[in-house]
Design a protein that fits this description.
Growth Hormone, Chain: A, globular, mainly alpha, 466 residues, 1% strand, two-stranded antiparallel sheet
């Protein structure tokens, strides 16, 4: 059911442009926040005297909350209204950003990051679904490519502006930027978007399945942060058990929060999501690791480190719209696979990082990674939306975001586990340099192997999506 417009895809060009602009702004502020925080982590750690693992939870707690709520909020949006859920999400994200800027310690900082994550889940679970509802298949890839480019612009400006703001205004200023942009999104949505999208209206919300899904993710991610200890192993195994219970439960309920048939009977949907999961698992922690490398091992200031790290997302922003347009004409699975080949190449050369590695070498690796990810992301997203019915767009949007965030958490979990094995819980500035560099090289090697596996999954989907 689409309230406000007889058919959402018949929306006029003016409404489409407004919705695209809102999607661009909302897609910009969340990655900007995440990447800017990464560059500010050393300053936050110094102010609150945090070790490496606790410092990483400033990022991990945010990602964990988003992943727990993304699929449930995507399904809730299909039932209760995507516009309504989007408005609630952008409002919560803006308010939480303001609260983070007034944090007085690590506990409150992480607590408010959890609220930010809940708001972000509502945004991710609806924005792409709304966009796909008003653009027909022949134009969907182009619109998705532009929106995903906005994600990469946020990632691009995050390290650069985040470094400058951290050096000149303090790390708290990073979160204050979200507030006026969030208010602008709320105003435009209320005044300019007349429609509501509820194609799954009348279905019951699956509370039990949502609880199982959340319990599995919390157990897995918290367990990863405790590895290689016994408690970490137990929690990871418990998380896997919850996932299996979730899958079995979802096969029996009439209105599942996540239909298992999408994975069992839809090859394009299943392998596109697996490819995304692996690709994000192999790439997200790169910025985190290189930020620490440049500022700790090379003793570079935050603004200079941010200027170096900006090479990857700038390249992603350039290639994403082009790849999105191409995926409207060519099998998006093939385009996405080509992108993963570039990512593998960039990770391979990052595996030779040393204390005196030339900065141009690092920039070249980041450009290769950015090219690959720009070519991969929008075609892969187009393949996912093209493989499902319109009434499942909210779930598809939730899965796109979940695979991204779950992959990012696994990526951070791998990095944290390697840090724990090599340097323990001591502050990074006190760690033996050779052990710190060794942990980075090991992480990049693991990511390289993961991405090779991702290419295999990406190649499996061969049929052209609608």
């Amino acid at each position: 059911m689409c309230h406000g417009l007889k058919d959402a895809r018949l929306a006029g060009p003016g409404i489409r442009r407004v919705i695209l602009f809102i999607a661009i702004v909302s897609s910009f502020i969340t990655p900007f926040d995440g990447s800017a925080v990464n560059i500010a982590l050393p300053a936050i750690g110094e102010e609150f005297s945090l070790d490496a693992v606790t410092l990483s939870w400033i990022t991990t707690s945010y990602l964990l909350t988003i992943s727990v709520f993304l699929v449930p909020f995507g399904k809730l949006a299909d039932i209760r209204g995507r516009k309504r859920v989007f408005l609630a999400g952008i409002t919560l994200f803006s308010c939480a950003s303001l609260l983070v800027s007034f944090s007085t310690g690590a506990f409150w900082l992480i607590a408010f990051r959890l609220l930010q994550g809940a708001g972000c889940a509502m945004i991710f679970g609806t924005s792409l679904a709304i966009l796909s509802s008003v653009y027909p298949p022949g134009e969907r890839g182009k619109a998705l490519g532009i929106t995903i480019a906005a994600v990469y612009v946020g990632l691009s400006l995050g390290p650069f502006l985040g470094g400058i703001m951290t050096e000149t205004l303090g790390w708290r200023s990073i979160f204050l930027v979200n507030v006026p942009l969030g208010i602008a999104c709320v105003f435009l949505t209320l005044r300019k978007v007349p429609a509501e999208w509820r194609e799954a209206a009348g279905e019951r919300f699956d509370y039990a399945g949502s609880l199982l899904w959340g319990a599995s993710l919390v157990s897995l991610i918290y367990g990863l942060s405790l590895l290689p200890g016994t408690a970490g192993i137990i929690l990871v195994l418990l998380g896997v058990a919850f996932l299996l219970a979730f899958a079995a439960f979802e096969l029996r309920v009439p209105f599942p929060v996540l239909s298992m048939q999408l994975f069992l009977a839809n090859r394009v949907f299943a392998f596109s999501n697996l490819a995304a999961l692996i690709n994000y698992s192999a790439t997200y922690a790169v910025t985190f690791l290189l930020s620490l490398y440049l500022q700790v091992a090379r003793d570079l200031p935050a603004d200079y480190a941010g200027l170096i790290l900006v090479a990857q997302p700038v390249t992603q922003a350039l290639f994403s719209p082009l790849a999105g347009r191409l995926s409207d004409r060519v099998d998006p699975g093939r385009v996405a696979t080509l992108g993963m080949v570039f990512v593998v190449t960039g990770l391979f050369f990052l595996g030779f990082l040393g204390r005196d590695t030339p900065i141009p070498h690092i920039i070249a690796c980041l450009v290769i990674l950015g090219t690959g990810f720009g070519i991969f992301s929008s075609p892969n997203t187009n393949a996912i939306f093209g493989s499902v019915e319109k009434r499942l767009y909210g779930v598809a949007s939730g899965m796109v975001g979940t695979m991204r965030l779950l992959g990012q958490m696994f990526s951070m979990g791998i990095a944290l586990t390697i840090f724990a094995l090599f340097i323990g819980r001591q502050e990074l500035k006190d760690a033996e340099p050779s052990l710190f560099i060794g942990s980075l090289d090991t992480a990049f090697f693991v990511f390289f192997c993961l991405c090779c596996l991702g290419i295999a999954f990406s190649l499996v989907r061969s049929k052209r999506t609608a």
